[in-house]
Amino acid sequence: MINNIWSGKKVKLRAILPTDWAKFHNNDFDSESARLSDVIYFPRSEEGTKSWAEHQASQGPNGDNMMLAIETMDGELVGSISTHSCDPRHGTFKYGVAVFREHWRKGYASEAVMIALRYYFEELRYQKVNAHVYAFNEGSIALQERLGFVQEGRLRNMIYTKGQHFDEFVYGLTKSEYEQLKS
C-alpha cells in the first residue's frame, strides 16, 4: 500500500475537479450550511458553478493558500477544506472546512483538518493555525475543541445574519499542541 500524506483512514484531500461542480452546486441550496461556513450568497447558475469548479481545478495553490476537495476513500466528494492568510515569515495560517450536510458527524471534517495540519506543520514548517468560528456554529465550536484548539478570543458583533449581529470566536493551535495530539 502506498502511503500518501493527503490520505487518512476515512478521507483523502485532492484537487477540485471540473466534474465536482454538481455537488458544489447542490450544496449551494443549503442556506443554513452556507450561513454556518461563510455567508449566504446570491444564487449561482449551473454555468456559474461549472465555471467556478473549472477555475478551482486550473488555479492550484496561491503561495501556501489552497482549496482542496474532501473525498471519502470510496471516492465520494463530501466537502472542501481551505487554508488562507498563510504567512511563512511568521509561520501562521488560517483554515476553513465545510462538509456537505448529509455527511456531517462522520468524522470527515476532523480527519481532513488533521491531514491539512500534518502537511502545514510537518512539511511547510508552520507553527500556528487559527480558525474563526461564528458563535452560533455549535458544530464547528465542538470540532475545534475536540481537535485541541484553544479559544483565544471573542470578536464581538462581527457577523450579521438572520437580522442580528453575532460574535466570532478565534481558536488557535500551536505546532507543539498538535504534536501532543498525535502522541
TrEMBL record:
CDD domains: NAT_SF (cd04301). Transmembrane segments: none annotated. Coiled coil: none annotated. Residues 11-176 form the N-acetyltransferase domain. It comes from the Bacteria. InterPro entries: Acyl_CoA_acyltransferase, GNAT_dom. GO terms for molecular function: acyltransferase activity, transferring groups other than amino-acyl groups. This is GNAT family N-acetyltransferase. It comes from Paenibacillus agilis.
